[in-house]
Specification:
The structure is a single chain. It is built from 20 helices and 31 strands. The protein is of the alpha/beta class and 647 residues long. The protein folds into three domains: 297 residues, Rossmann fold (3-Layer(aba) Sandwich); 74 residues, Luciferase, Domain 3 (Luciferase, domain 3), CATH 2.30.38.10; 128 residues, GMP Synthetase, Chain A, domain 3, CATH 3.30.300. The strands form eight sheets. The protein has an eight-stranded mixed β-sheet with strand order 12-11-8-6-7-14-15-23, with helices on both faces. Helix 18 links the parallel strand 30 and strand 31. Helix 2 crosses helix 3 and helix 6 crosses helix 7. Bound molecules: 5'-O-[(S)-butoxy(hydroxy)phosphoryl]adenosine. 5'-O-[(S)-butoxy(hydroxy)phosphoryl]adenosine (WT7) binds next to helix 12, strand 20, strand 25, strand 26 and strand 28. The site of 5'-O-[(S)-butoxy(hydroxy)phosphoryl]adenosine has 23 residues, from helix 12, strand 20, strand 25, strand 26 and strand 28.
C-alpha cells in the first residue's frame, strides 16, 4: 500500500489554502471563468500604474498576451510598494561562503536598487529594452542588479557562473547585450574563485555588441582592467543618487531572458514577461510555501537558474518576504552547513534539489540531529522527481515528520510552479508532484489530446495559456512555436507540451516520469545531449559521438558519451583522449557538462536512414538487456560490439 502523508493539522489551520475543498473551489472558479480568475488576482496582487484593458489576448496564439494595456514595474512591485509597511524588515539575508553575514532591509534594498538603476542609465547608457548580461556569484549585488534592470526596463540575461567563456560568449552574442555585469570572483569552499577572467576570454572575439563591463568587487583578487571598457561598480556607485523613478512597463514588456538547453546544440533564450511572470511568482510563493509575514525563507538554488530567479529574488520580494541568499556550497565546511544555517536564521521554509538531499544524506547522515531545526514548516524540492529514500530522510531527519514536502514540478519556460502539493491541503504521496496548482490546466494526453489512460505514460501538457508562461524564444519565434506547440493538440488547437512524460493514478495524482526528448537532467539541471555532442565533436580525433543519460546515485542522471574515433587507437591513447574530451567539454560548456563515462566504440547503432538509435544506447549504458527491435539497424551486430567495449 502506498503511504499517504496528510497535512499537519496545526499548520493547515492557518494555511492560505486549508484543505482540498478549498483547492477544488479555486480550481472550479478557474474552470468556470478562466479570465475572471486571473483578472481578479492581477487586480488584487499587482500594484498597477495604469490598469490593464484585457485579461488574455489569444488572437495571435501561441504568442499569448496577458493583462493587455496595463503598466507596472517589477522593481516597484518587489521593493517600492513594501516601503510603506515593511521598510525595516529584512528583504535579503546574505551569508557568505566563509560565514560573513549581511542583512539588507527593504529600505536599504530600495536605496541600492535605485542607485544601481541610475548607474546603468547614467554611466552605462542602458536604455529600456537593452539586454544586460549578468555573470555573477551569489551575492546581494546580483539581486540588486536584476532589480535595477527591471526598474529601468532593461532585459537581464543571467548566465550561470559555472558556464565557460565559450558558453557565455554564445549567450552574449545571441542576446546582443551591450553591458556585462560581473564580479572579480567570489568564494567557494573557503577559497577565492574567479569570474572576471572568464568574461575577458568571452569578450575576446565576436562580442562587439558589448561596450562596457561593470565589475563588482567581492574577493579582492587581482584582475586585469581594460581601459575604457571595464569599470568598478564599487567606485562608480558612490556618485549615484538613490532616487530613480521606475520606468512604466507594459505588462508584456520582457523582464528577462534565460538560456536553457533544448534538443539542438544551440541553447534557447527563454523570454519572460513583466506582469504575468511576477503575478505567478508571487502567487506560488504564497500558496506553495505559505510564507507568513515574520517568516524567513531559504532557497538554495543559484540565481543563474530559473529557480533562483523566481524563488530567491522575484517571488519572495514580490510578496514582501525575507529571502536568504547563500554564496557557498552545502558541504562546506561540512555537510551540516545548511542545517546550521536553518538554526542560525530560524528558517521556516527550505527549498532545495533532490540531488542536494541525496548528497547531504550520504555525507552527513547524522548532521541534522546536531541542530535545532524546529523552525521549519515547509520543505520543498525541485528539478527532478525525489526518490523514496531521499524523501524519507528529508521528511524525518530534517522535517521531524511535521513538515509538508512540496515536490514542485515546473520548468524554465513555465516561470513558476505548475504541479505541486499545497502544504496545508494536499495529502502527499512521496515522489509524486500530486495536482496542478489552481488555475493551471495541466493534462496528460496523447498527440491528439485524448487523455492517457490511468497508469499509463502520456505527454505532460498545459492545455491553456497561463500568465507566467514563456512568451517566445529570443530571436527565434519559429523555434518557440515548434519546440512547445508542435507536438500535441487538443480540440485541433496546438497546446503547450512540456517535453516531459507523466502518469496519473486512479485518484488523480500526477507522477512525472521524465523527459521524452534528448534532454537529460543532471543534478536537477537541464543538459542537452546535442550540446555535449557538439562540444565533443570539436575534437579533431572524434569521428562521431552520441551522448545519453545514465542513472547516477547522487546526480540523478550522469552524462554517458559513446565516441567513435577517426583512427585506430591504443589503450594509452584512449586514456589521453578521455582527458582531452573532458577538457573540451569544460571549455565549451563548463564543469556541469563533464562526462561521467566516455567509452570508445567502433560505430554507433544507426538505422538504414542514418538515425542513431539512442534508446539502445541508453539501455547499454544502464547494462540492461536489449529488448528493442534491432532489425532496423544497418548493422545489428553493432549492439554486441558496443556492449563488449563498455565493460
Ligand atoms: C525540467 C525542467 C524548474 C526548475 C529547475 C529545473 C524536470 C523539474 C521536477 C519535479 C520531476 C522535474 C522536468 C522539467 N523537473 N521539477 N518536481 N519532478 N521532474 O528547470 O532546467 O527548466 O528543467 O526538470 O524534466 O522539464 P529546468
Amino acid at each position: 500500500m502506498e503511504q499517504i502523508f496528510e497535512p499537519y493539522a496545526e499548520f493547515a489551520k492557518d494555511a492560505r489554502i486549508k484543505n482540498m475543498d478549498e483547492y477544488h473551489a479555486l480550481m472550479n472558479k478557474a474552470n468556470d471563468d478562466y479570465e475572471g480568475f486571473w483578472g481578479d488576482y492581477a487586480n488584487e496582487k499587482i500594484d498597477w500604474f495604469s490598469p490593464y484593458k484585457q485579461v488574455l489576448d489569444e488572437s495571435n496564439a501561441p504568442f499569448y498576451k496577458w493583462f493587455v494595456g496595463g503598466t507596472m514595474n517589477v522593481a516597484h512591485q518587489c521593493v517600492d510598494r513594501h516601503l510603506a509597511t515593511r521598510k525595516n524588515k529584512a528583504a535579503i539575508i546574505f551569508e557568505g561562503d566563509n560565514g560573513d553575514q549581511q542583512v539588507i532591509t527593504y529600505r536599504e534594498l530600495s536605496y541600492e536598487v535605485n542607485k544601481t538603476a541610475n548607474l546603468l542609465k547614467n554611466q552605462f547608457n542602458v536604455k529600456k529594452g537593452d539586454r544586460v548580461v549578468l555573470y555573477m556569484p551569489m551575492i546581494p549585488e546580483a539581486a540588486v542588479a536584476m532589480l535595477a534592470c527591471a526598474r529601468i526596463g532593461a532585459i537581464h540575461s543571467i548566465v550561470f557562473g559555472g558556464f565557460s567563456a565559450e558558453a557565455l560568449r554564445d549567450r552574449i552574442i545571441d542576446a546582443e547585450a551591450n553591458l556585462v555585469i560581473t564580479a572579480d570572483g567570489a568564494y567557494r569552499k573557503g577559497k577565492p574563485y574567479m569570474l572576471k577572467p572568464v568574461v575577458d576570454k568571452a569578450l575576446e572575439e565576436g562580442c562587439e555588441c558589448v561596450k562596457k563591463v561593470c565589475i563588482v568587487e567581492r574577493n579582492g583578487e587581482d584582475i586585469s582592467w581594460v581601459a575604457g571598457r571595464d569599470y568598478s561598480y564599487n567606485e562608480l556607485i558612490k556618485n549615484e543618487s538613490s532616487k530613480c523613478e521606475p520606468e512604466p512597463m507594459d505588462s508584456e514588456d520582457p523582464l528577462f531572458l534565460l538560456y536553457t538547453s533544448g534538443s539542438t546544440g544551440k541553447p534557447k533564450g527563454v523570454q519572460h514577461s513583466s506582469a504575468g511572470y511576477i503575478l505567478w511568482a508571487q502567487m506560488t510563493m504564497e500558496w506553495v510555501f505559505d510564507v507568513r509575514e515574520n517568516d524567513t525563507y531559504w532557497c538554495t538554488a543559484d540565481i543563474g537558474w530559473i529557480t533562483g530567479h523566481t524563488y530567491i529574488v522575484y517571488g519572495p520580494l514580490a510578496m514582501g518576504a525575507t529571502t536568504v541568499m547563500f554564496e557557498g556550497v552545502p558541504t562546506f565546511p561540512d555537510a551540516g552547513r545548511c542545517w546550521s544555517m536553518v538554526e542560525e536564521y530560524q528558517i521556516n521554509q527550505f527549498y532545495t534539489a533532490p540531488t542536494a538531499i541525496r548528497l547531504l544524506h550520504k555525507m552527513g547522515e547524522n548532521e541534522p540531529a546536531k541542530y535545532d531545526l524546529s523552525s521549519l514548516r515547509v520543505l520543498g524540492t525541485v528539478g527532478e522527481p525525489i526518490d523514496p529514500p531521499a524523501w524519507k530522510w528529508y521528511y524525518e531527519a530534517i522535517g521531524n515528520s511535521k513538515c509538508a514536502i512540496v515536490d514542485t514540478y515546473w520548468q524554465t519556460e513555465t516561470g513558476g510552479h505548475m504541479i505541486s502539493p499545497l502544504p496545508g491541503a494536499t495529502p502527499i504521496k512521496p515522489g509524486c508532484a500530486t495536482f496542478p496548482l489552481p488555475g493551471i490546466m495541466a493534462e496528460i494526453i496523447d498527440e491528439d489530446g485524448t487523455p492517457t489512460p490511468i497508469g499509463e505514460k502520456g505527454f505532460m501538457c498545459i492545455t491553456k495559456p497561463w500568465p507566467s508562461m514563456i512568451r517566445t524564444i529570443w530571436n527565434d519565434p519559429d523555434r518557440f512555436v515548434k519546440s512547445y506547440f508542435g507536438d500535441c493538440k487538443k480540440d485541433g488547437e496546438p497546446v503547450y507540451f512540456t517535453g516531459d512524460g507523466a502518469m496519473m493514478s486512479d485518484d488523480g495524482y500526477i507522477t512525472i516520469t521524465g523527459r521524452t526528448d534528448d534532454v537529460i537532467n543532471v543534478s536537477g539541471h537541464r543538459m542537452g545531449t546535442a550540446e555535449v555532442e557538439a562540444a565533443i565533436k570539436k575534437h579533431p580525433g572524434v569521428a562521431s559521438v552520441a551522448v545519453v543519460g545514465k542513472p547516477h546515485e547522487i546526480k540523478g542522471e550522469g552524462i554517458f558519451a559513446y565516441v567513435v574515433l577517426k583512427g585506430e587507437d591504443t589503450m594509452a591513447e584512449e586514456m589521453e583522449m578521455v582527458q582531452e574530451i573532458n577538457k573540451i567539454v569544460l571549455t565549451e560548456i563548463g564543469a556541469i557538462a563533464k562526462c561521467d563515462d566516455i567509452k570508445f566504440v567502433p560505430d554507433l547503432p544507426k538505422t538504414r536512414s542514418g538515425k542513431i538509435m539512442r534508446r539502445i544506447l541508453r539501455s547499454i549504458a544502464k547494462g540492461e538487456p536489449i529488448t528493442q527491435d534491432t532489425s532496423t539497424l544497418e548493422d545489428p551486430s553493432i549492439v554486441q560490439k558496443i556492449q563488449t567495449c563498455i565493460i
